């Protein structure tokens, strides 16, 4: 069945994703997407492979989707649950935003956190006052993201055997 | 306010004449305005000017009925200025006119179109000073930030377009649409998507921008896309923002009342409150409220005590209600008893008194024949016995009242609650009476002026009942001294005259009502006197330190 939300998502799928992000819907449900953001170069997040899920409902694109990190994150604006606090996903949402622009915004949020309204207070404090500590904690999550990747790949390998 | 009213049609002149008319409509205002001599008839923004027309003063005793209040008013004017709230009552329409005047002012000073000035003001949350300052600094930066097109007007840039099927694909809904709208920025979307987008944002009171860039939509754009009146809705939500940003403006707290009161001596409010006066104002719909608490007029109770009482009622009212609806008092020792099952043969756990749940009589009188009490028997002996018992329990109740704080609370809460619900009933009754007045005018050829006595009496009744209601809250927080006995006597008298007048309103026949005109006038005048006595008695009690404020 074709609804405005589904039509938009099919179009979003045809748009080439920008560098460092990739996203695709589940094979059986176009309303749920999995995405990966590569940590931007020259930042503590560099080369991390962070996974996200994006849940759309029929209100899209008039209402924003729900975006959530699946990977463990250490970032001032990401809650322990993986949910994130980003203005364009709440009150500054515009119906012209698509999957690519959401992911680009999330990617730029990684190295440019909003300290005034932190979701993770510890991360915000370290970011402000103890940069090296902060970088160290972030690197830990980057390494964890690789390990998760590796495990997934092994799973795939086993499946093939 | 109807949707078809365009914001820009309100000129400042209209606003003034409008306001003037409304004030003249209100006898209360005319009275005071003449006392404080209106010289120019200009409604100005100068807060310090206390001689302006349409601005009126009111003391703590909010008695503003008819002519008999005139001597009272003199008392008001004699008292020091600090006791009075000075305010202007505004309707939403007045505020729209005010904002419109402000917009016109900005557009002429900054040499902008009205539409652009409106956008800028909305963007700056109606802070003219900041807007002017930053605009003088760097007009282009301000305009760009607010989304006002720097060169040329936005109006010329917006276009409505029509396509044949298959020619245009809307970026938002990904559907082929035939009707689109394009702003000067060149971004073009179908009307359906645009309309949804706008309707989602009109309640924000903020500038609505192009979905893709910073260009602002002006009122023509809004009205064209989302239908006539949409830009007006944005203005209305703008008013909310305006009122919330200006602390001297207060919304009337009555349900669904769209009126606003502007307090001219906002800085004096804490002083008024600290001197145990209630800063009461009246909105354009004749709702009275306390500007300090944003709560109904709670004269004669000082703000602090009123707050304490309201929170207490909020916390305890559920408990009180539950106790009232689920328990009975033991006829002997007055403990609250909940019956959680079983038969009606009750034995009080405290005093071991055995009684019947249904008739509250001693169980021994029932003997073995159960529930005779449900049958009606008119036995004179029993009646006498009952009376005796009633007197006895009444005495005990009185004794326990002072002992038991919950009892004391329940006692006053009950009275307070009874009068609260009566106020609602009275209010209904008064609406009914207003209907009657209209009927009277049509059928018996009685003039409007002559029929006014009913409306005035109704108002007097409502006001007095409110004072009475709050006096119970006051009594709860008082120490039991000799003065309280006097207080209670005054209170009882007020209650009596309230009920007397209330009873008069039960007359159904319009002609009978007219015949009783004198009675109405007498009773309401008497009631007002007693209300005054109640208020001054309360203030005296405070002065003598009766008010402990302890729960």
UniProtKB/TrEMBL annotation, chain A:
An annotated GO BP: DNA repair
Species the sequence originates in: Wickerhamomyces ciferrii (strain ATCC 14091 / BCRC 22168 / CBS 111 / JCM 3599 / NBRC 0793 / NRRL Y-1031 F-60-10)
Top EC class, one word: transferase
One Gene Ontology molecular-function label: ATP binding
Signal peptide (from-to): none
Keyword Nucleotide-binding: yes
Protein name according to UniProt: Ubiquitin-conjugating enzyme E2 2
Key words, A-Z: ATP-binding, Chromatin regulator, Cytoplasm, DNA damage, DNA repair, Ligase, Nucleotide-binding, Nucleus, Sporulation, Transcription, Transcription regulation, Transferase, Ubl conjugation pathway
Main location class: cytoplasm
Compartment(s) where it occurs, according to its Swiss-Prot or TrEMBL record: Cytoplasm; Nucleus
Entry's family note: Belongs to the ubiquitin-conjugating enzyme family.
TrEMBL record, chain B:
Biased composition (Low complexity): 31-40
Top-level lineage group: Eukaryota
InterPro entries assigned: Ariadne, ARIH1-like_UBL, E3_UB_ligase_RBR, IBR_dom, TRIAD_supradom, Znf_RING, Znf_RING/FYVE/PHD
EC number: 2.3.2.31
GO BP of this protein: protein ubiquitination
Broad EC category: transferase
GO function terms (MF aspect): ubiquitin protein ligase activity; zinc ion binding
Record domain RING-type: where: 166-377, 170-214
Gene3D superfamilies in the cross-refs: 1.20.120.1750, Zinc/RING finger domain, C3HC4 (zinc finger) (3.30.40.10)
PANTHER family, per database record: RBR FAMILY RING FINGER AND IBR DOMAIN-CONTAINING
Protein name: RBR-type E3 ubiquitin transferase
Organism: Wickerhamomyces ciferrii (strain ATCC 14091 / BCRC 22168 / CBS 111 / JCM 3599 / NBRC 0793 / NRRL Y-1031 F-60-10)
